[in-house]
Each structure stands twice: as C-alpha cells, then as structure tokens.
Design brief:
This protein is of the alpha/beta class. The chain folds into two domains: about 1-30 and about 50-150, Rossmann fold (3-Layer(aba) Sandwich), CATH 3.40.50; about 155-240, no CATH class. About 35% of the residues lie in helices and about 10% in strands. Helix 6 (about 175-185) packs antiparallel against helix 9 (about 220-240). The radius of gyration is 24 Å and the shape is globular. The termini are far apart.
Amino acid sequence: MPPLGRAGWSASAPRSPPLSRAGAARRWRARPWPTPKPPTSTSTTPCPGPAGQLLLLHARLPGHQREALTRLTRERLGSAGERPARLVIVTTSLLDMSLDIDVDVMVSDLASLEKLLQRLGRLWRFENLWGTGADRRPAWLRRQGVPRLSILQPTDHRGRTLIPAAWRTLEPALFTHAAAGRLAGLPQRTLTLTLPDDVQHLVETVHAGAAELARTSPDLTQHHTAYQSRRRSEEHLSALHLIPTWRDTPRSARPVRRAPAAS
C-alpha cells in the first residue's frame, strides 16, 4: 500500500456489511494524505484529512445524497471525465449495479466468484478505449502491466474461512466459501484471468456444478446441505403464499357469475 500514499491513483473498496464500510472509511480518513498542490509542485506534506479525496457511497444514504455521490463518481471516473489526481471510494454492492467507471486499484471483501467477476469489470475498464498512448495511470501501477483485484478473506485463529454474521443474509455461504477454496488452492493464492473468455467457465464451475463442488471438502458439503435446505424452505414458503391463476383454481372454488334478474 505505500505507493498509494505517494502517487496519483483512483481506488474502490467494496465492503459487505454497514459497519465494515463505515469503519473502512474512518480508517482511510485517519491516514496521512498528501496535501493537494498545483501541478507544478512536488510537495507531499501529509495533511490530517482527505480533502475531498475520499467518498463513502452506500444504499442507506438519503436518496438525494446517494444520487449526488453516484453522479460525482461517474463524472470523475467515467470514460470522458477529468481524471482526479487521487480518489478513494468506499462502497458496497452498489458497485455491481451498472456503474460505468474505471478504477486503478480495487480491494474487495470476500464474495462469490460471480460478484468478484462483476466488480473486476471496473478495473482498467477503459484501457482499450483510451489506447496505449493515454497516460492516465500512475507510473508505479503501469509497471504491474495488468489490473489486480485484492480480496480480503476473513478467517478464524486457525486460518479457516469465517464468514461474519452480518454477511450471511447477502448470499449463500456455499458460494462465498467456494470462492475462498478456489483461491486458496492456487499458487501464491493468485488467480490470473483473461476477460471475458474465462468468465463463463468460472461461473458454471461454482453455480452449475454446486453438487459436484460440494464433494471436494467436508466444509463445502456442509454448506451445500444448508444451502439446499434453505432453498427448499424458501420454495415451499413461496408456494404457500403464491396466488394461483384461475386455471389452477378448482372449479368448485371459482366465483359463480349470476345472471342479472329480469326486469
């Protein structure tokens, strides 16, 4: 992270529960930020606040405030916008919802492969549109050669994946644990992808072959059983409250139309 405090960059940090995003924003705000200076100055004297370089964007904000921040994000990180010298956006799954922006760096909480791939689409999104001659990214990032998504994996004291309780309503634990298991089994815990060529195969591996995937470890077997039980319970509850069509209603239960009385 040291280069992030010295050079110009734009970053996004998708967080899952409300406390995570607020806490992350507070920690970023407490960091020493280089003082904004005119382009001719090379001073990087730390200042106590982010000076407009940090945004917190989530669905619980008042509507007018959320819309204003979303519009500001599109203006600053859109394909034709004026690239900011430095901008950090702490957000939630709002990032997955059709935000046509380009960020230099992304750090995300652990999520299903489907969500991670969706977020990955915001990294260097306009690279081909800008062309190789466009110098819109910092030099230290250019040396990497490819965009990189860093994933934060919550673990217990034994290093096993431990999903916080606040995350369990967002998506089934099976798919989150499957993503963690897929990454853990790779050299240096790094997955190299070619987009969009590898997307379909990865999503089908987890979602279409969930039963086969569950047999790869006892933990995934347990999560798959819980996922199937919850899914059957939700389907049953939905069927109980579903209003049937008139074709599915027994004839004896249909309302009787009475002919108008003759005058």
